[in-house]
Amino acid sequence: MTLRLDGALTVREVSVTRHLWLTEIGLNPEPVVELDATELQKIDTAGVQLLLALRREVEGRGGQLRLRAGSGQIEEQFAKLGLEGWS
User: Fold this and answer.
1) For residue 52, how far is the Cα from the chain centroid?
2) Where residue 66 sits, what CATH number does that domain have?
3) How many CA atoms lie within 13 A of 26 on its CB side?
4) Measured between alpha carbons, how far apart are the two ends of the chain, in Å?
5) What are 1-58's pLDDT values in tens digits?
6) pTM, full prediction
7) Could you tell me which residues are beta bridge partners of residue 53?
């Protein structure tokens, strides 16, 4: 399953995005979930927290979350938080 992320993932979008993602992975429990963030333009720490929560959720179900990043925004935020190498 692929979840697509474009535009922004900031504190403003996190609540709605979280609900959509949890609904999607609940309806389609596949072992590998790919998060396509190649069109992501902006992410803040709330967005990073959501990515980490999504990873926890997927791994808790015995799956794996793969992150496909494009703009460097995710890697930059992860580096600031000391989470390099996850993506």
Assistant:
1) 7
2) 3.30.750.24
3) 6
4) 17
5) 899 988 899 999 999 999 998 898 888 878 899 988 888 888 888 998 998 899 888 9
6) 0.81
7) none
